[in-house]
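Quick entry between incubations.
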Amino acid sequence: MCAIAHQLEAAGLPTTLIALVKPHAEKIRPPRALWVPFELGRPLGAPEDSRFQRRVIKAALKLLGNQATPVLNDFPEDAPPDNNISNYDENWVCPVSFNSPSVSDHDTHATRLAAEVSLLVPWHEAWKRKHGRTGFGLTGLEPEKLADFFGSFADGHEPGALLPGSETANTFKLGVNDLLTFYQEAANAQPGAVGNTAEINSWFWNETEAGQTLLAIRKIGGGKDPKLDFVIKRLTVPHVAEVIINK
Amino acid sequence: MARLSDMPEALRQHVETLPLPVFEDTPSANGPSLSERRVALISTAGLSMRGESPFGMGAADYRIIPGNAEADDIVMSHISVNYDRTGYQRDWNVVLPLERLREMAEDGTIGTVADHHYSFMGASDPETMKPGIDMIAKSMKQEKVDAVLLLPV
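Done. Structure below.
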């Protein structure tokens, strides 16, 4: 990010950037940067808060007036609290978990995951109706197909490529992204869930068959395919999951 | 929450030990007042138009996001699992604030919104992105862009 700004500015284009990791901006010294104290993944801090977003953008664009570079300013506000829903229980608990009878009755990852996904499909449909969009769809496969692929993998079957004819490691990674998006959006569509990011993460890694399936796959690894092995061991389970699981 | 002290230990170590490029000096380009500038966005969130080829590991290339794109046109294929995606799922502007820019052009805060915006996949080595950045710089100049707002995830 900071390196891109250097190159564009050297080509004569005035730049300003949002910095999420301050030590990086301090070391790379891009022409103009606004450090923001927000969560990784949210450079403008607050979803569904256009006024707050505009304040961040204006603060970043204002730096364009500085000709003496580098300049690194701090944005003075923290992001507003995420949980802005007051009509529901504050402690959101997803009713879908591997302890649900319809999920726990099955004896393989594949069948448990299929049962779980089928319980969440209506909520994912609700998400799409409410937001008019979805981040799901990188692989072009339906959630049921993803459940079958990851469940069979966790059950020890030879995985093959998620998309026949495509490169195995990259399509595996796209499938993980799709699976996570499906679960996060379905969870966020439920009453009282909106904005409970920490609870949704905790639910996914502690309570869902999908989380257990990905953890099981990480134990199996990518076998003789070093790229797939890297994706499975380094790019499938986030660091925050370790913290959640070890709690 | 992007303070290093708030991150899980393994993520903090990863962020702290990332190899960073070194620059001897910092360039500076001029432009008119903000209300006259043409603004373009560059995101390193691995965004692409739905149906377009997503980003893979080590991807050094870029994707074009048209200035009239809408929320459901965009998908995210960044390879990292270590940042929040739920904010983006709820509101794409938290990552790519195209709607905010349109409003700011409407109310005169900025001049105009560029016709083309761009995305890289930020986990890749910036050194490998140089040819793409060079290409983008030429296109932006052609389009008379004189303000670039860069957004990480």
